[in-house]
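Design job #97: recover the sequence.
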C-alpha cells in the first residue's frame, strides 16, 4: 500500500536531463521523486531536447524547464546562480559521456555545465550510454576524476541496449534512483537527529495495526485498523533520532526507513513481543494498535462446517498489553491511544488513569474522515496529573503531522523529568 511516511522537510532536486535515449525514463523519474515529496525542477541540454520536449517536464514538475544559460527571461525569474543555490541535490540522469567530460574538465559553456560549477549541493550522475562508450578509457578516466571531486555515480545497469549491444550502460529504473535519493536524505536527516533530535538516544517501542484472533484454520476476528497511525508515528520517532521497534499486526504497509519491524498476529503474540522488547530496553512505549479485547476460547482444529442457523463462539478476554507493560517494576514512559465513539474525553481520561499511563492520545473513531484507515487524524492529548501539562488539541491533519506533534508532546513530558513509577 502506498502511504508516504516521510516527515523530513521538503528538499529541492534539480534534475538535469542530457541527450540520450534514456531521457524518456527521466519523465517517470520526476513522478517518482515527487511521490517521495521532493520539489523537482528540470534543466535540459540541447541534446536532451532532441529526445523529449521541455513541455513534458514542465507538465510533470509544475515548473518552467530551464534550457538556456543566457536567456534574459529565465534570468529575470530564476537565474542560473539562483537555480544552483536552490538545489539541495543536482541529479544528472541520464548523464552522457559528453557531460561527464565537461564536468571533469570544468568547462562552462552551457547552462548545465555552469550550474555544476556554481552549486554547493551534492551532485549525482547516472551515466547511460553504449556499453563500449562506457568502457572507453576516456569515459572511465573522467568518471574517476568526478569521483575524486566528490560526485556520486549511480552505476549503470547491464542488459540489452537501444543500439542492440548487450552490456553495462543502461540507466537504472526511475523507482530505484528515486529510492536512492530518498534514502540519502533520510540518512542525512538521521545523522543530525541522532545528535539533536527530540528523541535522540531514546529506545521507542510502538504497537500498530490490528490483531487477528483465529477462530479456526481459515477464519479470524479482527478490526479495521490499517496501521497508518502507528507506522507514521514510528517514522516520526525515527526522524526525531530514536531507535524504533515497531510491533505490528497484519497490515499491508511498507516498513518505515530505519525502523525495526516485528510482525505479530494475535494479541498474545503482541504482548509477548512487547515484553521481549521491554527486557531489551525501552524508554517510551506507544500503543497505537487496535488490539482485540476478546479471542475465542478454543480455536477449532479444523474448519468449522456450516450446520444450524446459529453459531455461538465462546470469547474470553485478551490480556491488556499497555496496562501489563505499565504495571512492570521498571516501566517506560507509557503512551496509550484511545479509540472512542462517544464521551471521548471522559473515556480517554478514564483509560489514562485505569491503565496507569503517562499520556493518552484520543481520537473519535465515529468520524469517517479520521481514525481507522484514513490518511488523516485529529486528536486530543491528555497527560497524567504529575506532569502538570494541559490537554492539547491536535487539529485534523495528515497522520505524519499528527505524529510530529505527538513526538513534541512526548518530548515535552519527558523533559519534565517526572519519576516514572
Ligand atoms: O491503524 P489506523 O487505520 O491508522 O487507525 C488508527 C487507530 C484508529 C487504530 C488509532 O488511532 C487508535 O485509536 N488506536 C487505539 C485503538 C484501541 O484499541 O483503542 P482502545 O481505546 O480500545 O484501547 C486503549 C489503549 O489500550 C490503546 O492504546 C490500545 O492499544 C491498548 N490496548 C487495548 C486492548 C488490549 N487488549 N491491549 C492494549 O494494549
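Job complete. Output follows.
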Amino acid at each position: 500500500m502506498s502511504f508516504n511516511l516521510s516527515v523530513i522537510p521538503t528538499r529541492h532536486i534539480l534534475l538535469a536531463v542530457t541527450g540520450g535515449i534514456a531521457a524518456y525514463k527521466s519523465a517517470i523519474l520526476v513522478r517518482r521523486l515527487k511521490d517521495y515529496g521532493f520539489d523537482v525542477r528540470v534543466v535540459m541540454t540541447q541534446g536532451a531536447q532532441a529526445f523529449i520536449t521541455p513541455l513534458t517536464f514542465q507538465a510533470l514538475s509544475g515548473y518552467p524547464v530551464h534550457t538556456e544559460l543566457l536567456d534574459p527571461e529565465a534570468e529575470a525569474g530564476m537565474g542560473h546562480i539562483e537555480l544552483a543555490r536552490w538545489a539541495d541535490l543536482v541529479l544528472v540522469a541520464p548523464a552522457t559521456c559528453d557531460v561527464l567530460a565537461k564536468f571533469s574538465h570544468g568547462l562552462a559553456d552551457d547552462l548545465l555545465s555552469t550550474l555544476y560549477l556554481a552549486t554547493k549541493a551534492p551532485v549525482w550522475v547516472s551515466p547511460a550510454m553504449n556499453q563500449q562508450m562506457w568502457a572507453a578509457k576516456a569515459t572511465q578516466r573522467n568518471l574517476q576524476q568526478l569521483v575524486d571531486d566528490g560526485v556520486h555515480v549511480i552505476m549503470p545497469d547491464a542488459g540489452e541496449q537501444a543500439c542492440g549491444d548487450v552490456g553495462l550502460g543502461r540507466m537504472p529504473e526511475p523507482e530505484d534512483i528515486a529510492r536512492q535519493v530518498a534514502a540519502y536524505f533520510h540518512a542525512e536527516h538521521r545523522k543530525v537527529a541522532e545528535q539533536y533530535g527530540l528523541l535522540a538516544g531514546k529506545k521507542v517501542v510502538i504497537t500498530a495495526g490490528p490483531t487477528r484472533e483465529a477462530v479456526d484454520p481459515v477464519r479470524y476476528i479482527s478490526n479495521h485498523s490499517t496501521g497508518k497511525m502507528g507506522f507514521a508515528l514510528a517514522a516520526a520517532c525515527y526522524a526525531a533520532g530514536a531507535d524504533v521497534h515497531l510491533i505490528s499486526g497484519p497490515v499491508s504497509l511498507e516498513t518505515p526507513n530505519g525502523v525495526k519491524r516485528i510482525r505479530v498476529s494475535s494479541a498474545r503474540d503482541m504482548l509477548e513481543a512487547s515484553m521481549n522488547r521491554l527486557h531489551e530496553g525501552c524508554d517510551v512505549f506507544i500503543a497505537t494498535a487496535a488490539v482485540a479485547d476478546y479471542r475465542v476460547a478454543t480455536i477449532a482444529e479444523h474448519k468449522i462446517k456450516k450446520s444450524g442457523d446459529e453459531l455461538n463462539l465462546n470469547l474470553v478476554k485478551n490480556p491488556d498489553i499497555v496496562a501489563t507493560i505499565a504495571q512492570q517494576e521498571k516501566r517506560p514512559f507509557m503512551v496509550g491511544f484511545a479509540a472512542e465513539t462517544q464521551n471521548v474525553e471522559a473515556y480517554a481520561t478514564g483509560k489514562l488513569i485505569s491503565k496507569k499511563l503517562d499520556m493518552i492520545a484520543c481520537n473519535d473513531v465515529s468520524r469517517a474522515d479520521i481514525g481507522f484507515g484514513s490518511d488523516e487524524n485529529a486528536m486530543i492529548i491528555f497527560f497524567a496529573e504529575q506532569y502538570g501539562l494541559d490537554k492539547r488539541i491536535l487539529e485534523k491533519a495528515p497522520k505524519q503531522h499528527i505524529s510530529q506533534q505527538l513526538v513534541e508532546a512526548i518530548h515535552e513530558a519527558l523533559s519534565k523529568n517526572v519519576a516514572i513509577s
